[in-house]
Amino acid sequence: MQTFTTNLHRHFQEISELLRHFYAALHVWRGGGGGAILDPQGAVGEALKEKVQRLVRKLEAKHSELTQERKKFPRDARGMQLSKQIKPQLDCLSHAFEQYDKLLTDIENATERGEWRVT
Hints:
With about 120 residues, the protein is an all-alpha fold. The chain has one domain: Methane Monooxygenase Hydroxylase, Chain G, domain 1 (Up-down Bundle), CATH 1.20.58. It has helices spanning about 1-30, 45-70, 75-115.
């Protein structure tokens, strides 16, 4: 149990740090909350895009790692209890992926309209 608790804490710290950087970059990419998306073709937009993509890859790796770890749990009451302790971290990662997908959709829509504003 000690190893599980240690690993859970390590995952929590790593995911928290990745999400902190992810949401900060997303906020800037969206224009600091002002509704504007930075031009993804511009220098700043391109750098942020690359940073966010790197973070998404790391978040996906953590999601995969946690999912694999969760599958190893026994199919009994104890395994279900352990699985429930990992689920909040998986939910946080899923939310980040949804936000990333929404940003990509907003960029695509802004591109089609020929503007860099999010409606």
